[in-house]
Amino acid sequence: MLQSATPSSDFTQTESTSVPSLTSVVIDSTIGNTPLVRLQRLAEHTQAIVLAKLEGNNPAGSVKDRPAYNMIMQAELRGDIKVGDTLIEATSGNTGIALAMVAAMRGYRMILIMPDNSTQERKDAMLAYGATLIEVPAQGGGMEAARDLALQMQAEGKGRVLNQFGNPDNSDAHYKTTGPELWQQTQGKITHFVSSMGTTGTIMGVARYLKEQNPDIQIIGLQPADGAQIAGIRRWPKEYLPTIFKPELVDHTMDIPQIEAEKTMRKLARVEGIFAGVSSGGAAWAAIKIAEENPGAVIACIICDRGDRYLSTGLYSVIDE
């Protein structure tokens, strides 16, 4: 069984101790502690180490399992929600799937609102966990319209919005788990952290933790280039900018071209054996660019989900020159 890496000095993975037979765990304990693996071929032309954190290994298949679990559990602990309540959230996909899983696990009704151009695999995954799905026209407001509708439904008493865009429990999940894992897995040698920016929860939580360990670590946030539409990466209008976002924690911002994100996504699968989505391709592309310019660097990027929830796009069947 593949375990989260505890790297030796050359960042190779070590064997974990075997789990005794008949030992069982609850699904909560399978969130996090994801593997950190080195890109063996895509970055071999550089003089840096590029590491990919495989968040698709979480039980619902993405990095969003971490904040979804933390948002619901912290709200429970505060007494804001109780088992049997209805929860509402606007989502582009991964957070919705993760919330649907946790809601099923904890005994909540989950209403998810998302743009209608999301892949069928993501919609089906939400329904499989028992969530109610409401779609809004992608061309009629998209995620912004979904967020507005969620707040409207809350005001009408139809449920409680968890608000991943303004909920500190989102970024705290990464401060408590993802950041410490990266620090431990690289033995404190990480020099650059690369992450897509959507709700910005991942980059905010990890940046806060890593900067506390070493303020010289460079935090690189990714946003779509003009005209690019990459699921999970957003360029928000000012009035919809997530309130958990603290720009002072991001040292550099890179624009991700659509074509490069898609090409690198395919290369990850065909050259590295890492099957991931388009935003993960963008993160790997950016990490390799940084590696080319920073010999000796130790760069970690987030591979935020698995590629199987994008198969219907046809992007994996494209043959690149």
TrEMBL record:
<feature type="binding site">
    <location>
        <begin position="198"/>
        <end position="202"/>
    </location>
    <ligand>
        <name>pyridoxal 5'-phosphate</name>
    </ligand>
</feature>
<dbReference type="GO" id="GO:0004124">
    <property type="term" value="F:cysteine synthase activity"/>
</dbReference>
<dbReference type="Pfam" id="PF00291">
    <property type="entry name" value="PALP"/>
</dbReference>
<feature type="modified residue" description="N6-(pyridoxal phosphate)lysine">
    <location>
        <position position="64"/>
    </location>
</feature>
<feature type="binding site">
    <location>
        <position position="279"/>
    </location>
    <ligand>
        <name>pyridoxal 5'-phosphate</name>
    </ligand>
</feature>
<feature type="binding site">
    <location>
        <position position="94"/>
    </location>
    <ligand>
        <name>pyridoxal 5'-phosphate</name>
    </ligand>
</feature>
<dbReference type="InterPro" id="IPR036052">
    <property type="entry name" value="TrpB-like_PALP_sf"/>
</dbReference>
<comment type="similarity">
    <text>Belongs to the cysteine synthase/cystathionine beta-synthase family.</text>
</comment>
<keyword id="KW-0028">Amino-acid biosynthesis</keyword>
<dbReference type="GO" id="GO:0006535">
    <property type="term" value="P:cysteine biosynthetic process from serine"/>
</dbReference>
<protein>
    <recommendedName>
        <fullName>Cysteine synthase</fullName>
        <ecNumber>2.5.1.47</ecNumber>
    </recommendedName>
</protein>
<keyword id="KW-0198">Cysteine biosynthesis</keyword>
<dbReference type="InterPro" id="IPR005858">
    <property type="entry name" value="CysM"/>
</dbReference>
<feature type="domain" description="Tryptophan synthase beta chain-like PALP">
    <location>
        <begin position="28"/>
        <end position="305"/>
    </location>
</feature>
<keyword id="KW-0663">Pyridoxal phosphate</keyword>
<dbReference type="InterPro" id="IPR001216">
    <property type="entry name" value="P-phosphate_BS"/>
</dbReference>
<comment type="pathway">
    <text>Amino-acid biosynthesis; L-cysteine biosynthesis; L-cysteine from L-serine: step 2/2.</text>
</comment>
<dbReference type="InterPro" id="IPR050214">
    <property type="entry name" value="Cys_Synth/Cystath_Beta-Synth"/>
</dbReference>
<dbReference type="InterPro" id="IPR001926">
    <property type="entry name" value="TrpB-like_PALP"/>
</dbReference>
<dbReference type="InterPro" id="IPR005856">
    <property type="entry name" value="Cys_synth"/>
</dbReference>
<keyword id="KW-0808">Transferase</keyword>
